[in-house]
Design a protein that fits this description.
It is a single chain. This protein has helices at residues 6-19, 29-36, 40-49, 75-114; strands at residues 54-56, 63-65. By secondary structure, it is mostly helical. It has one domain (6-114): Arc Repressor Mutant, subunit A, CATH 1.10.10. The chain has a two-stranded antiparallel ribbon. Strand 1 and strand 2 (63-65) form a beta hairpin. The protein starts with 5 loop residues before the first helix and ends with a helix. The mean pLDDT is 87.
């Protein structure tokens, strides 16, 4: 999942660091919320949204780092991906802005020629 802003990247990184020490047993979202000072509903949303990084532990209401996904529960690999995803999002936003400005300039020229 593409991380679209710095706040989301920072929150996910905080969760990764807070979840990692719990190992396979996992940690509850409410406990995480208190540890990282993020609202519990946002914590749960981020945990579900970033299933590549986090996984629910059995039937419990706990989450652990996803050892079965692409990153094998590696904190270093997850952190690198979070940063890379955010940078990719920033590049995409920059390209979109340049394209939008280009279209506006062309349209302005077309309108000016018609007047």
């Amino acid at each position: 999942m593409l991380i679209t802003n710095r706040k989301e990247a920072d929150d996910v990184l905080a969760l990764v660091h807070a979840v990692a020490p719990s190992g396979r047993s996992g940690i509850e979202p409410g406990t995480l919320a208190h540890r990282v000072f993020i609202e519990s509903n946002r914590v749960e949303k981020l945990l579900r949204r970033h299933a590549d990084y986090f996984v629910r532990v059995g039937d419990a209401r706990k989450f652990a780092l996803n050892r079965f996904g692409e990153f094998n529960g590696s904190v270093k690999r997850i952190i690198a991906d979070v940063e890379q995803s955010y940078k990719r999002s920033e590049r995409n936003r920059s390209v979109s802005l340049v394209l939008m400005i280009s279209v506006m300039v062309v349209l302005s020229g077309v309108i000016a020629l018609q007047l």
